[in-house]
């Protein structure tokens, strides 16, 4: 096979780029390790910033998102038994976020690719990039006993944190920065009315909790748990009791519980790999950087990578101009690091850290006091939460 752009990974990053390029007549092939159903079964992000939504519309995938997604003007931070609101819209001069699940967004992208006859190959094994630093890079994968080769101009590594792209860069050509947090998030999806129309992030002595939603009949809740816990340790009843204990009493009293329809534990990690280009391979999304989910930045950081990469590819193929490709890594990383800072800060503000000293805990409490006595501090939080400009 021969194509212009070979994309590894059929998550939101790879699918969105594939769709955008195809709409501009740039040929691409996308290789995904798993089946479509498997990818759609992973429950992940729920909060989208406007830049992401705009890119979905540009990809002609915004219709359902705009009818079914909910615009949120603000959210709450619960602490010390009370609930304080962050007025996103008021503090940012009119910006808001969109609550629309990653599962739905990924489904919309798959449907759009199918409508356009996009070349997406599922269940591929042993994907491998080759001759990345040459002018003739290629991909191989295995289909049964057969090894298939795809020649391309460029390779896009959009294969998530555990993918093969980043790992195929020689160690001396990439630098990795990492912080692993001493806890994870246990997430539960339930077909119940959400306890609050707006998200509630809760700081509590027993650990962090989050009340989120996918729609007015589908709730998503999270609690901070030790890394040693497994979902077997958390039958539904124990989960609901613990969640309620971490919420202000008026919120807990209104919480409607029900059977979980999905339950998983995700470890929390901050991670950045630099640069995001090696030869003719470009990394995008979780393949290059991970944030703890606290600031809802993960998918949104992937969106800015795709935006820069898409425009750089357009300049290359339509205008013969390679400056966008040359600048990609630096430009993407400048925004990625700001998303990292915000996610790290909000994680530090809201979680219980088992090894914190009394001094650290005092700083954390002071950070919270400062936030809700300073409109400027709230404006800074809001500016980052709705997403910094691309
Ligand atoms: P993905 O989604 O991991 O997709 C990568 C795809 O590549 C495939 N793959 C391979 N394919 C071929 N060959 C190989 N060798 C391959 N290895 C892997 C995988 O099967 C997969 O389909 O990365 P992508 O596209 O960059 O998207 C990133 C987002 O998924 C991620 O950043 C967000 O989900 C993070 N995140 C959130 N982000 C937000 O912006 N807002 C949120 O509210 C939010 N909440 C969350 C989150 C992530 C969470 N978890 C579970 C980590 C909540 C949670 C709990
Ligand atoms: C979610 O709904 O899954 C969600 C919302 C906000 C976050 C993280 C996850 O910060």
Bin the strand percentage.
25-35%
| Superfamily (CATH H level) name of the largest domain | FAD/NAD(P)-binding domain
Q: What count of domains describes the coordinates?
A: 2
Shape: globular
Give the gist of this structure.
The protein is of the alpha+beta class and 390 residues long. The protein has two domains: 233 residues, FAD/NAD(P)-binding domain (3-Layer(bba) Sandwich), CATH 3.50.50; 122 residues, D-Amino Acid Oxidase, Chain A, domain 2.
Describe the structure.
- The chain is an alpha+beta fold and 390 residues long.
- It has two domains: 5-72 and 96-178 and 269-350, FAD/NAD(P)-binding domain, CATH 3.50.50; 181-268 and 353-386, 2-Layer Sandwich (D-Amino Acid Oxidase, Chain A, domain 2).
- It has helices spanning 12-23, 36-41, 50-58, 63-68, 88-91, 102-115, 236-245, 249-254, 298-319, 323-350, 358-371, 375-386, and strands at residues 5-8, 28-31, 47-48, 70-72, 75-79, 82-86, 97-99, 119-121, 125-130, 138-143, 146-151, 154-157, 175-190, 200-202, 209-215, 218-225, 260-274, 277-278, 281-283, 289-290.
- Strand 18 (277-278) and strand 19 (281-283) form a beta hairpin.
- The longest helix is centred in the last third of the chain and has 28 residues, at 323-350.
- The chain binds 8-demethyl-8-dimethylamino-flavin-adenine-dinucleotide and P-hydroxybenzoic acid.
